Amino acid sequence: MELPDKSRFPRAREVAYLDTGAEGLPPVDAEEALRAYYRDKAGGTPGRKQLYQEERVCVRAAARLLGAPPEDAALLSSASEGLNILANSLDWRPGDEVLISDLEFPSGVLAWLRLRDRGVRLRVVQSEAGAASFERYAEAIGPATRVVCISQVSYKTGANCRFLAELGREAHRRGAVLAVDATQALGRVPVSLEGVDYLVASSYKWLLGVHGLGLVYLAPGLRERLSAGTLGWYSVQDVFAADRFERYLPKPGAARLVSGMPNFPAIYVLRRSLELLLEADVHFIDRTLAPLIDQLREGIAGLGLEVLTPAAPEWRSGIVSFAHPEAPRVGAALEQAGVIVWSGDGRVRASVHLYNDAADVERLLCALEATTCPVR
After folding, report:
1. Measured on CA atoms in the order 26, 27, 31, 35, is the torsion positive or negative?
2. pLDDT for 236-261, tens place per residue?
3. Is the pLDDT of residue 374 over 60?
4. In CATH, what number is assigned to the domain containing residue 17?
5. HEC profile for the chain?
């Protein structure tokens, strides 16, 4: 088994592309996928049959990647929409709490922060050395905690929280729901649904898709505990039922979360990207790229930079970050040298995916040294 050839990702042959944590590179198959969508769409109403078929195939592929039954997976517009649907679908009471850490992406903050007008409190677990441990979460869960929301991989430091099953058990013991943002994990590192009640992930990063699509997983045990936080014609089983002005019957499983016509162009692309990832095997991707992550972290530390990514292998993901007061300048200098990373918010972040190799890591480290970016 080996990783896909770089020829399937033309941009990865032009530069050392190390910014999948912000934007993944779609494979060349994506262009034909969009053409196929246009051909089906151009057929008018009869083309809908193929549009719906593509959605079904894509959902099945997403479920395979998640290790879930297809009925428990659905496609929304974004991970942010998924989190907001969950926030809108729970029966909140004044005094309820949502628990997150200070490593959460803004989407995992704002969906809950806006509930404060309803008397819901947002509590923040403080991280240490780039990670928030299971013990810190467990200690913070209290009788008022209704939701524990956590990113499996932190967008900020790359810390991979491999204790989700344990955290889920602890949350359930206290009567809370475990919600996971797998945006920086799914497609790059193994993701397990054990103990997880709800999961969201964007599709345009590690899943190698385009914009306007997100994955959601809804555990059967949570399904009936949710009210309809959003609802539309696509959410129900019979949109033209005789009694539709009096009642509705939601679709079974996660499909009830989809309120309107899906983003079919993005679905056409994602289906092919998911097939590529399933063929490559995420476990194989993670094992193969682990030495590059270690080389990258050690090389950055060797340049005297303040590495934000935890050193212990159990925290390893596809991301390595370091702090820098002039991050935008560093990022611009690297781009001039043919190395693409993310830079801002006082840090620089490099992301390693299946189209990267040791030459890309070496190019980044040499460019960093040449720009004299270390602050000593």
Report:
1. negative
2. 999 999 999 999 999 999 999 999 99
3. no
4. 3.90.1150.10
5. CCCCCHHHCHHHHHCEECCCCCCCCCCCHHHHHHHHHHHHHHCCHHHHHHHHHHHHHHHHHHHHHHCCCHHHEEEECCHHHHHHHHHHHCCCCCCCEEEEECCCCCHHHHHHHHHHHHCCEEEEECCECCECCHHHHHHHCCCCEEEEEEECECCCCCCECCCHHHHHHHHHHCCCEEEEECCCCCCCCCCCCCCCCEEEEECCCCCCCCCCCEEEEECHHHHCCCCCCCCCHHHECCCCCCCCCCCCCECCHHHHHCCCCCCHHHHHHHHHHHHHHHHHCHHHHHHHHHHHHHHHHHHHHHCCCEECCCCCHHHCCCEEEEECCCHHHHHHHHHHCCEECEEECCEEEEECCCCCCHHHHHHHHHHHHHCCCCCC
Q: Are 109 and 122 in contact (CB under 8 A)?
A: yes
Q: How many residues does the chain have?
A: 376
Residue 254 placed within a domain = yes
| Same domain (yes/no): 209, 295 | no
pLDDT in tens, 56-91: 999 999 999 999 999 999 999 999 999 999 999 999
Cα 252 from Cα 262, distance rounded (Å): 17
Q: Which residue has the higher pLDDT, 143 or 374?
A: 143
Pick from 181, 177, 191: nearest CA to 150:
181
Question: Contact 267/54 with Cβ under 8 angstroms?
Answer: yes
Residue 330's pLDDT is what? 96
Burial of 110 (0-12, 13-18, 19+ CB in 10 A): middle
> Which tokens belong to 132?
């928030």
What is the tens place of the pLDDT at every residue in 91-123?
999 999 999 999 999 999 999 999 999 999 999
The structural domain count of the chain equals 2
What would the mean pLDDT of 190-211 be, rounded to a whole number? 98
Domain span holding position 307: 6-27+281-370
Distances in Å between the Cα of 238 and the Cα atoms of 20, 135, 167, 242, 252 are 40, 47, 38, 9, 12
Buried b (16+ CB within 10 A) or exposed e, 81-90: bbbbbbbebb
- Measured between alpha carbons, how far is 282 from 303 in angstroms, rounded to an integer? 31
